[in-house]
């Protein structure tokens, strides 16, 4: 089944679905103008086109005053909070950023029915809260990483024989992170072909390290927010990154890579294994954009030595500001943008939904497309192991203290012990300085 | 009630004074004040909590800050000298051209016309280890069979940043020095010829003293630029990896805008200003000395 058929099917399903959003009475918000700051980008525009429907239904007007990526929006929100320019009502939010703005967004619970909230995936709702306050409604932009791999390197008979001889095991896509490392080193033929790659800076590498620590049976923070990653689990997790770099199984510039670099790398056909987000699935298998097209396999992410699979996840959402002078209208718009019809529309382009019913619809619609079915099966399994970024306002600040130390260990400037100790001390000092404990 | 009559000059200057005060003085004073507070962008109320010199003490005791400080001085020293030497050579060459000099001058200014952000992206791509132009060329020519980590290795990344800075700003020196060359009177040059001076002697004892004031002006301008280098480095390496290319303003920018710790960032900024003040004073002293030598002091 091609993409167009899939879209048509999904749209039909959506139209047939009973929309159980917070019902807005016709003309309920006549004359109300809501200013919004939303994430910008081509992939988000289809949903924004629906705003006109909500305007027609409620009589309100939406004035989008800013469209930027989340990192730029983050700076803008912080500037707005500093300057007190909070006259706008609705903002795009992200589970990794939300905890930084504990006073910016209002609790949406009073404006929604419990039945409506129950229609979302419970883990996504849990990750949309700061304490007990539901500060955003999740959008159909759920991110958790699964394992993409090149099928041809596993089908290659010479590879199979060599791997069997080397390890005594059959060559199949890895189910553990140790096996993953072993295979990545085995596949590498630098500088033309690398076993794997990883995001090597900013929040990206700390997120990957975080999920690896969890998979090794540890945690990044204790319950009182003291750093907990300078542990055996943390050392094993960091060793995974260090070993791959030392073995030359990743491109030497990987410490400067972020998501776009990784996407381009796997699409170039020169990377065997790639833990990555669902948004890349279509791109990787599109002959127009990817040399790996037709050769891409996807399975659930591997597990660490503790038997736990990695699963650092995040999702986009929409929030209503505490200063909004018509929170009911704001909540109504946010509910509309994340209701079943909206999520079905967004999911038809590839992103993962955050509503239980839409998951079922998407999986059913993809059953005749083998690749899409494989992708959705893998990501549905991946989602069941998902956990959010640590819910502290100091997450991003902590990542800025941790990532240079991880890099120092990877590049050999420091030992693993030294790097984790320095990072742990810096995070501890920062938390104390902020009065966390 | 007697009317207060303000002096005419003051009344005439008042609009300029008000504008300057509001766009320069107020932000300056506010940022100075905030450097004595734990001000965080996400918690506006912290602006009113006075913590004295805590931020300054913290910055002074921060090893990473001083490493970034030292690296910024190193970048200043290397980039300015390189730009000065290359700019001087370029200006001397262009000065000798008899045909198409105007077109050459315009062409020479092209790098200055690019936004530093674009220059950063351009060199980030050129020096990329995997798909970069430099590695592809080296591998195609058989000069290398490995992916050289230009933006990862500390020394290579520093070289790449200096290269980008030099590529973009050498023409600043070239244009200013060229202006100096045009201003040299012909009498001493002709006298030197008559006295049988070699080209080197003519350059050393006549040309160079005449263009030194222009060189010092260029050095003063560029030292301020490089001391607050941010855009190119931010795009190419973001101060990494492992802080290997961290400069003062990548550190300050991340502290202020990403970590939202504006009070601490401002304290670091005020300490960093020492650097800019020192170089400006130093080059202006040198400029005055050079002008005195030419009998132009005033």
TrEMBL record, chain A:
Keyword set, alphabetical order: Signal
Signal peptide: 1-26
Superkingdom field: Bacteria
SUPFAM superfamilies, per database record: Periplasmic binding protein-like II
UniProt entry tagged with the keyword Signal: yes
InterPro entries noted in UniProt: Bact_solute-bd_prot1
Record's keyword annotation contains Electron transport: no
Protein known as: Sugar ABC transporter substrate-binding protein
Natural source organism: Falsihalocynthiibacter arcticus
UniProtKB/TrEMBL annotation, chain B:
Membrane spanning stretches: 12-33, 73-94, 106-127, 156-184, 205-224, 267-284
GO biological process: transmembrane transport
UniProt key word Transmembrane: yes
InterPro entries per UniProt: ABC_transporter_permease, MetI-like, MetI-like_sf
Location within or outside the cell: Cell membrane
Domain ABC transmembrane type-1: 69-283
Alphabetically ordered keywords of this record: Cell membrane, Membrane, Transmembrane, Transmembrane helix, Transport
Membrane topology: Multi-pass membrane protein
A Pfam family of this chain: BPD_transp_1
PROSITE patterns in UniProt: ABC_TM1
Record's GO cellular component terms: plasma membrane
Gene3D superfamilies tied to this protein: MetI-like (1.10.3720.10)
Family to which the UniProt record says this protein belongs: Belongs to the binding-protein-dependent transport system permease family.
PANTHER family noted in UniProt: ABC TRANSPORTER PERMEASE PROTEIN, INNER MEMBRANE ABC TRANSPORTER PERMEASE PROTEIN YCJO
Name of the protein: Sugar ABC transporter permease
């Amino acid at each position: 089944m091609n993409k167009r058929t899939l879209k048509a099917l999904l749209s039909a399903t959506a139209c047939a679905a009973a929309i159980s959003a917070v019902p807005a009475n016709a003309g309920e918000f006549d004359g109300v103008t809501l200013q919004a700051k939303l994430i910008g980008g081509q992939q988000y525009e289809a949903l924004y086109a629906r705003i006109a429907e909500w305007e027609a239904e409620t009589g309100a007007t939406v004035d989008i005053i800013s469209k930027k990526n989340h990192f730029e929006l983050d700076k803008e929100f912080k500037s707005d909070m500093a300057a007190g320019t909070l006259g706008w009502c609705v903002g795009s939010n992200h589970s990794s950023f939300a905890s930084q703005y504990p006073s910016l967004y209002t609790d949406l619970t009073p404006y929604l029915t419990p039945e409506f909230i129950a229609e979302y995936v419970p883990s996504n709702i849990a990750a949309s809260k700061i304490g007990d306050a539901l500060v955003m409604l999740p959008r159909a932009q759920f991110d958790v990483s699964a394992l993409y791999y090149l099928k041809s390197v596993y089908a290659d008979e010479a590879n199979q024989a060599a791997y069997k001889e080397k390890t005594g095991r059959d060559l199949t896509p890895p189910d553990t992170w140790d096996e993953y490392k072993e295979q990545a080193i085995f596949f590498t033929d630098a500088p033309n072909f690398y076993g794997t790659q990883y995001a090597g800076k900013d929040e990206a590498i700390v997120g990957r390290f975080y999920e690896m620590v969890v998979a090794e049976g540890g945690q990044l923070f204790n319950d009182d927010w003291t750093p907990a990653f300078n542990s055996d689990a943390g050392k094993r997790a960091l060793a995974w990154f260090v070993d791959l770099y030392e073995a030359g199984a990743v491109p030497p510039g990987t410490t400067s890579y972020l998501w776009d670099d990784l996407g381009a790398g796997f699409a170039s056909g020169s990377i065997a294994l790639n833990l990555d987000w669902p948004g890349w699935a279509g791109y990787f298998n599109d002959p127009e954009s990817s040399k790996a097209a037709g050769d891409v396999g996807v399975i659930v992410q591997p597990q660490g030595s503790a038997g736990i699979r990695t699963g650092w996840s995040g999702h986009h959402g929409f929030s209503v500001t505490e200063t909004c002078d018509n929170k009911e209208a704001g909540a109504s718009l946010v509910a509309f943008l994340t209701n079943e019809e909206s999520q079905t529309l967004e999911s038809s382009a590839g992103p993962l939904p955050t509503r239980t019913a839409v998951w079922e619809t998407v999986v059913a619609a993809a059953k005749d497309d083998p690749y899409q079915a494989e992708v959705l099966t893998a990501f549905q399994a991946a989602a069941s192991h998902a956990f959010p970024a640590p819910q502290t306002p100091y997450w991003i600040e902590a990542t800025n203290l941790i990532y240079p130390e991880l890099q120092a260990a990877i590049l050999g400037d420091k030992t693993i012990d030294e790097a984790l100790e320095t990072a742990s001390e810096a995070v501890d000092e920062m938390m104390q300085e902020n009065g966390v404990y | 009630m007697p009317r207060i009559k303000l002096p005419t000059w003051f009344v005439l200057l008042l609009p300029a004074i008000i504008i300057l005060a509001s766009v320069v003085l107020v932000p300056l004073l506010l940022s100075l004040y905030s450097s004595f507070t734990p001000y965080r962008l996400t918690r506006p109320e912290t602006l009113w909590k006075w913590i004295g010199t805590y931020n300054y003490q913290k910055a002074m005791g921060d090893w990473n800050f001083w490493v970034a400080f030292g690296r910024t001085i190193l970048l200043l020293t290397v980039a300015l000298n390189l730009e000065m030497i290359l700019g001087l050579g370029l200006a001397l060459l262009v000065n000798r051209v008899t045909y198409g000099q105007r077109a050459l001058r315009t062409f020479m200014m092209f790098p200055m016309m690019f936004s530093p952000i674009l220059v950063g992206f351009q060199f980030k791509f050129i020096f990329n280890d995997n798909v970069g132009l430099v590695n592809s060329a080296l591998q195609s020519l058989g000069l290398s069979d490995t992916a050289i980590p230009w933006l990862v290795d500390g020394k290579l990344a520093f070289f790449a940043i200096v290269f980008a800075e030099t590529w973009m700003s050498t023409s600043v020196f070239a244009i200013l020095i060229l202006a100096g060359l045009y201003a040299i009177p012909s009498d001493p040059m002709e006298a030197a010829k008559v006295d049988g001076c070699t080209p080197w002697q003519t350059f050393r004892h006549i040309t160079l003293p005449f263009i030194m004031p222009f060189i010092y002006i260029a050095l003063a301008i560029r030292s301020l630029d490089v001391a607050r280098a941010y855009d190119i480095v931010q795009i190419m390496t973001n101060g990494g990896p492992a802080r290997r290319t961290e400069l003062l303003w990548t550190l300050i920018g991340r502290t202020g805008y990403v970590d939202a710790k504006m009070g601490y960032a401002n304290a670091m900024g005020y300490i960093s200003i020492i650097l800019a003040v020192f170089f400006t004073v130093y080059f202006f002293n040198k400029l005055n000395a050079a002008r005195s030598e030419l009998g132009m002091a005033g």
